[in-house]
Amino acid sequence: MALVVVTGYMIRHPVAGNVWAFFHYVLGLKLLGHKVIYLEESGWSNSVYNPWKQEWQEDPQVGIDVVRGLITEHHIEVPVYYVNRESGQTTGGTWSEIKQALREADLLINIGGVCWLPEFRLCRRRVLIDMDPFFTQIGKFGSEGINEYHAYFSYGGNIGKTDCPIPTLGIDWHPIVPPVVPEVWEGVSPDGDAPLTTVANWKAYGSVTYEGEEYGQKKEEFLRILHLPEYTSQKLDLALAGVSDEETAQLEKAGWLIRSAEEVGVKLESYKNYILNSRGEFSVAKNAYVKTNSGWFSDRSVCYLAAGLPVIVQETGFSNFLPTGRGILSFSTLAEAAQAIGSVNSDYSEHRNAAREIAENVFGYRIVLTKIFEAAMK
Predict the structure, then answer these.
(1) Can you state the angle between helices 268-276 and 16-31, rounded to 10 degrees?
(2) Which of 33, 51, 61, 272 can bridge 1 by disulfide, Cβ–Cβ 3.0-4.6 Å?
(3) Cα distance from N-terminal residue to C-terminal residue, the chain
(4) Which residues of the chain fall below pLDDT 50?
(5) Can 3-177+365-376 and 182-361 be said to share one CATH topology?
């Protein structure tokens, strides 16, 4: 088996949903038998978010503790290194040890493109995982070192197709989906009156203008279906970050159940319980993912699926290549969203079984990470 260096964004942003988006790679690679090193760099000043204090800071220890805690919980051995690119200070090992690890590595997997050090070139093979299709290709993320990889992968499964306007940059983007370790999300059956839920950032890193067109976040798409609760008796619970008091009041008046994302997303256990105690997921996608027909599918949705919980999610073009109708249901309009909720509730057991099967056979780490590894090493 290989020595793989994984880089990502767990230490600097140690909130549960974000951490799992990256940790599934670390855990999955270990379960496949590889040796894994996790390496992250600061990127910029005061780049570490402390979710307990809700402030940005220089000290990475809070994030390092979260990552090491997960590693311990899952009984795996993964060295964790952190580099402050401005001061040169390192945590977990010396610069010399980190560079030696990079020299010895068979593969570097840069997840999200939010880390870049010139020393990454010491790795004999390097790949980029694009988690934010469109935003990556227009330079919002991953632009530093963009030409330094041997293979490129994207959650934008439609990039390069005629019905997807995302620029390719002349790169052959291999379509992939977010990996999940299904056994992590095994749980009990939710209560009969459990809500459909999701955790979402209302406006995240804001809208961008590209070639005269504005591309937004989830706010725009939730507002399109603001009155959905009027068309279903199903409880709809949103754990939101970045939403104003006025917007919260607007959503609650329309019938949505609103809570703070920090309430469920700071502690890993709270986040997991929030998902496992749901009837399933209901969510929109970022406006940019929808407008570009990107094919993006959520790394959070795969956790619901792995728990055997159906997901009802906004269409981004993923129906071109993912199984839908059972377990995964897509919608583009308010009417389609209401219809999908009714479909799930009318045959819930069937949708639960399909969800778990899809998690195993489409998003399972054995399938997704093996595909990445084999393509990367060609």
Answers:
(1) 90
(2) 33
(3) 15
(4) none
(5) yes
SS3 content of the chain, % helix, strand, coil (to 5): 35, 20, 45
Q: Is 317 exposed, middle or buried (0-12, 13-18, 19+ CB in 10 A)?
A: buried
Find out whether 313 and 301 touch, Cβ atoms under 8 Å: yes
DSSP 3-state of 122: helix
Compute the chain's Rg from CA coordinates: 20
Q: Is the pTM of this model over 0.90?
A: yes
Q: Which fold has domain 182-361?
A: Rossmann fold (3.40.50)
| 131 touches 152 (CB < 8 A) | no
Structure tokens at 135: 């935003």
Residue 341 · residue 312 · CB < 8 Å: yes
Cα–Cα distance for residue pair 112/133, rounded to 1 Å: 10
SS3 sequence of 48-105: EEECCCCEEECCCHHHHHHHHHHHHHCCCCCCEEEECCCCCCEECCCHHHHHHHHHHC
Write out the CATH class of domain 3-177+365-376: alpha beta
- Let me know: does 76 contact 28? Beta carbons within 8 Å: no
Give the start-to-end residue ranges of the domains of the chain. 3-177+365-376, 182-361
